[in-house]
Amino acid sequence: MCGIVGAVAKRNVVGILVEGLRRLEYRGYDSCGFALLSDGHLVRARTTARVSDLGDQGQTMSGNIGIAHTRWATHGKPDTVNAHPHFSNDLIGLVHNGIIENYEELRAELQAAGYVFVSQTDTEVIAHLIHQTYVKMDKRDLAQAVRATVPKLHGAYAIGVIAQDEPGVLVGARVGSPLVVAYGEHENFLASDALAVAEHANAMSYLEEGDIAVLTTDAVIITNIDGVIQTRAKKEVPAQVAAVDLGPYQHYMQKEIFEQPRAISDTLGHAQNADPALFGATSADWKKIDSVLILACGTSYYAASTAKYWLEDLAGISTQVEIASEYRYRKTVPNPNALVIVVSQSGETADTLAALRHAQSLGHTETLAVCNVATSAMVRETKYCFLTHAGTEIGVASTKAFTTQLVGLYLLALTLAKHRHLLTDAQEKNAFNRLRHLPSAINAALALEPQIIAWSEAFAKCENALFLGRGLHYPIALEGALKLKEISYIHAEAYPAGELKHGPLALVTDKMPVVTVAPNDSLLEKLKSNMQEVKARGGKLYVFADSDTQITASEGIHVIRMPEHYGDLSPILHVIPLQLLAYHTACAIGTDVDKPRNLAKSVTVE
Q: I need a labelling partner for 511 at 20 to 30 A (CA). Which of 336, 363, 456, 548 fits?
C-alpha cells in the first residue's frame, strides 16, 4: 500500500509522477517517493512529509521514465529508509503495494547470498530477487527477470520496476492488488488507480491476476507468467476520476457529506420498482435463494449490519453478516442456496475479496457485489452486482459511499421481499416514494450543521465518547463512533442501549459524552429508560431525536431535533448528523480530516 504511479515518455515525467501521487493522497500514506532514470543512472527522492515536499525535491530532477509511490507502513516504521522506491545495487528500482508473506525466508536466503538490506520492508526482498536473476542473464531482460521472480512471492502484490540497463522499459505485475495500464500519445502509464494518470491517458486496461505488463513509449505488451501474450480490453478513462476539485469546501470529507443527496439520487437512477434486474438478475435466478450471507469490513460492515434488519424484517429471509477478515479463517457451514453479498466502496478490499473467493471455494455460486467501482475485481468476480453511484470519494473516512451502500441494500431487501411475495404493490409504491424523497430529507438534516458545530466544541475537549442505539439504529451508532475515532482520534465506542447495565454504564461520568440516536420507533420507550440510566449517573446526553419523540432538553440532556421520522430508511437520515459531528469535532481539534493518521482509503492488504 498505498499508491503506485509509473510513466515512460518522451518528456520529463517528474511532473506526471508527482501529480499522480497528489491525486492518490486521499488513500492515506505516511511516506512517498519517486525514482527516475536520469543520465543513465537511477536517482530518487523520498520523504516522510507530504507529496508537495516531494515535488519541491523534484524541481531540479528530470528523466523520461520513472516510478513513484505513496506508502502506508506495514513492515518497518514510517521513515525515509523504508519509503519506496527501493533499489537493488543501484541497478533495479521498484515500488510495491501489498504484503509478501514469505519475505523473512526470502530475506534470509538473499542475505546468505551476500545481499545487504537497508530497510525493514518486505518490498526490498523483491528488488533483490529481481536483481539476482537479472545479473545472471546472458542478455538482460527486465520483463523476463520479473516473470522468473514472481512465482517465489507468496502474498499480494502490485509492482512497478525499472532497470538502469533498460532505460525505455517499465514493467508492472500484479497478484491480489489492483494495477492498471493507461495509454497516451507516445507515452504510457502504470498506476494502482486510474485517477492518478487520468489527465494524460486516452484509454486504459485493467490487469488481471498474474498479468505482467511491459511498457515502452510506443507499446504495451501484457503477458502471463509464461510470457504468453494476453489481450485486455481497452476502456475509456472513467469521467469521474477527474472530479477531484475541492470547490468551496474546507475538506473533501465535508464536500462528500454534502454530496449525499445527489449521490443517493444518482444511485437510485430511474428505478421505479423492486426488480431483480436492478442487480443483473432475474426472478428465476433467485428462485432457490433461502438465506443471505453478507461479507464486509469497516464502514461497509456497518452498512451490512443495518441491512440484516431490513432483509429479515421486510423479506423474511435469514441473514448472516460476517467481518470478512474473520470469515475465511474459521470453519463454516456453507449453504449452496445462500446469496453471498460482498460490500465494498473500492471493490478491491483485500479481506473482502479473499472472503468472496473462500465462499466460492466452498460452493457458493450465487454472489452479489454492492460496490462503487464498475471495473473492480469484486464486480468482475461476482455473478450479480449493484453499482452505487457515489462518485469519487477522496476523504479516507467514508460518508457518501456508506449511505449509497445502504440505499442499494435497502433496494435488495425490497426486491427479495417482493420475490418472496411479502411486499404488496401499495407497500412497494410507498417505499419508492420515500426513497425518492430521501435526498430532500437529507438536505434538511444537513441544515442542522450550525447546531452540530456548537456541540463539536464540547466534544473536542473530551478524550472518550459513548454512542447508543437500539435495533435498526445500533449499527448507525457503531458508524458514528467509528467516524469520530477515525478523524478526531477521540476514543469512541458504541453499544446497543439495552447493554448499558451489563457493563458500559461503569464508564459513564460527567466527562463522558453519550451520543444517542433516538428515532420515533417501537423501541423509543426502552431507549428513554436507557437514557435515564445515564442521566442518573451524572452522564451528559447528546440526543439526535425525531421531532415527535417528546424528548426535551434539560440539565444534562442536549437535544437536536431531526426534521422528520423516516421509518425503515431512518438509519440513512440519522447517520448524517453523526458524520457532521465527527467532522466538526476533528476540525475543532485540528486533525488532518481527509488523511487521518495511520489509515488508508483502499485497504489492499490483509
A: 548
Q: Is the pTM of this model over 0.85?
A: no
Identify the three-state secondary structure at position 457.
helix
Q: Which three cell numbers stand for residue 583?
A: 467532522
User: Of 29, 73, 7, 22, which is closest to residue 52 (Cα–Cα)?
Assistant: 22
**In whole angstroms, what is the distance from residue 190 CA to residue 187 CA?**
11
Mean of pLDDT over the chain:
90
Instruction: Please determine, for residue 98, whether its predicted confidence score (pLDDT) is greater than 60.
Output: yes
Contact (CB, 8 A) for 35 and 67: yes
CA distance 190 to 380: 21
Q: Which pLDDT score, from 0 to 100, does residue 242 have? A: 45
Residue type, 5: V
Cis previous bond, 587, omega within 30: no
* Pairing of the two strands 92-100 and 155-163: antiparallel
Just list the catalytic residues.
2, 601
Instruction: With CA atoms as reference, report the closest residue to 573 among 545, 552, 540.
Output: 545
Contact between 161 and 184 (Cβ < 8 Å)? no
Return the ∠ at Cα 74 (arms to 69 and 80), rounded to 5°. 50
3-state SS of 234-265 is CECCCHHHHCCCCCCCCCHHHHHHHCHHHHHH
- Tell how strand 220-223 and strand 212-215 pair up: antiparallel
Distance of CA 251 to the CA centre of its chain: 18
Distances (CA, A) of 303 to 116, 255, 365, 566, 569: 47, 21, 23, 17, 12
